[in-house]
Amino acid sequence: MTSTEHAAAMPAAPHRSFASDNAAGIHPTVLQAIVEANGGHALAYGQDDHTARCENAFRELFDADVVTRLTFNGTGANIVALANMLGSLQGPHHAVVCTDWAHISVDETGAPERTLGTKLIEIPSPGAKLTPELLQTVAHLQGVQHHVQPGIVSITQATELGTLYTAEEIVALCDHAHGMGLLVHLDGARIANATAALGGTREALRSFTIDAGVDVVSFGGTKNGLLGAEAVIFLNPVLAAGSEYTRKQVTQLPSKMRYLAAQFNAALHDDLWLTMATRANEMATELYRLVAAIDGVAPGPSPEVNSVFPTLAPDMIEPLRDWCFFWDWDTSVHQVRWMTAWDTTPQDVKTFADGVATLLSN
Question: Are strands 335-339 and 307-308 parallel, antiparallel or unpaired?
Answer without folding.
Answer: antiparallel
